[in-house]
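Quick question, first post here. What does this chain look like in 3D?
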Amino acid sequence: MNRNGHSHDHADKFCGCCHLSNRTRLSCMLVMTFSFFLVELIVGQMTKSITLITDSFHMLSDSLALIVGLFSVIIAARKTNKNTFGWVRAEILGGLINSVFLVSVCLGMFVEAIERFFEPKQIEDPKLMLIVGSIGLGINLVGLFIFGHAHSHTSIHEQDNNNHADGSNVNMRAIFLHILTDFLGSVIVILSSLLHMYQNEINIPGSLIDFLEPVLCTIIAFLILFHVKNMLIDSALILLEAVPDEINIQDLRDDIVKRVPNSEILELHVWQLTNKEIIATLNLRCMNRDINNNAVADLKNLLINQYGINSSTIQLE
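> Answer (accepted):
Ran it through. Tokens below.
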């Protein structure tokens, strides 16, 4: 149980009116994505279609991202005596891993776009690409609805359970960006296929179509990188136990000394457990021997109300 009396059931926290836990959302999306991977791989081998085989391995990479997210949710739910804070950071770690995956995907899109600028690739079977892109678009639309709905209810969860909401938020945001990237990629595939199929009817030069696809891929990769950058940095800083950006450690030191005159700070450590859960330890040497428990209560109020530090341990000497 947390300090508010809520259970740390990280995997089975329900989201909004859909009544689906994060574990269920990830499991459903994983089944759809991995099934489509198998279908594309088998059909691609049967038809000797390099396009289908290539796209199937792209779906496999999406499945791996979902597996990382799912295992993060499962691990975060486990209770253990080995880690007194629990495994709430598992979802932060999962979000970090998937953010790195996203960066690699975007870099891959950049490289492929540059290659397409210099060596345009002709679509051999635009109808097949249209079918593949449409099915992928449908799967990603379902994923955007599932995870987009969960993301929109994050503030509700934060009121109930800060630890879970924050770790889950990072993890689910990373998954949402993965699906959004695939969704936009499917839109490009469909658009490119339609332009190739009706090139003569709409009288568009083939060179313009070949130029359009890498340009769109570059724009999408840039937008995804822009959004994933802050999430990647924030997750890394939390895991490295950096002082939160909103806290000026020197101002905190000055306020502590003002609250307890004739004192010396021996040790002060401030770090984040999750995005919203901030922890501090303070070792204070007091010259005034008349300091009592009221001073400790006053310091705790300072940490909570002025600096948003949820949990603190204060030792007076």
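Strands lie at 14-15, 20-21, 263-272, 278-286, 311-316.
The domain at 14-239 is CATH 1.20.1510.10 (Alpha-lytic protease prodomain-like).
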